[in-house]
Specification:
The protein is of the alpha+beta class. Helix content is 24%, strand content 43%. The termini are far apart.
């Protein structure tokens, strides 16, 4: 009497490995797709196009799901993420982001935030870019308690631009004839 085979035929075992590999690959691709989809929902302005006209540059921003205007840009030549905040007096930078950008902390300043009073530090941005809009020597504050990676683009930058809100989009315009 012969004993039953102790293992599956080699083809069946290879098939199980291939099936498992296919599942892992499928899950990996699905997680990448949905991760990128979620990022596009948070920041629909990853690739900004600018419109140039006689004496102006315009950038159009779409609001995200929460109605916020989030866009990628640059500070001192380094890539950053901005959230427009017309209620903020200054461009406000989380301390971790300021450290990554090698920004110097200047004079301490007391800030009135939605969460109460906080201490920040004055700084100056040599350059700030949003699409083809370029600002130089922008006043800003480093805010140690500000969570996240986004820089709040406040009025110290926005007052140099014209901005219009219409149909869930914000149009930013920089006059270049100055």
């Amino acid at each position: 009497m012969s004993s039953p085979p102790s293992s599956s035929p080699p083809g069946r075992q290879a098939g199980r490995w291939l099936l498992a590999l296919a599942w892992v690959a499928g899950l990996f691709l699905a997680s990448r797709f949905f991760g990128e989809w979620e990022q596009r929902q948070e920041n629909p302005n990853r690739e900004l196009s600018s419109t140039h006209g006689a004496g102006f540059v315009e950038v159009r921003l779409q609001g995200n799901r929460q109605g916020h205007f989030v866009a990628d840009g640059r500070v001192n030549g380094q890539a950053v993420s901005f959230m427009l905040d017309t209620g903020a007096t200054e461009v406000s930078i989380p301390a971790d982001v300021a450290s990554q950008l090698s920004l110097e902390k200047g004079a301490p300043v007391m800030l009135n935030t939605a969460n109460g009073a906080a201490q920040g530090y004055r700084t100056r941005l040599a350059s700030l870019e949003l699409g083809d809009i370029r600002l130089s020597q922008v006043s800003a504050v480093v805010v140690p308690g500000l969570p996240g990676e986004q820089i709040l683009l406040g009025m110290s930058a926005l007052k140099r631009l014209e901005f219009t809100l219409r149909d869930g989009n914000m149009l930013l315009r920089q006059n270049t004839n100055r």
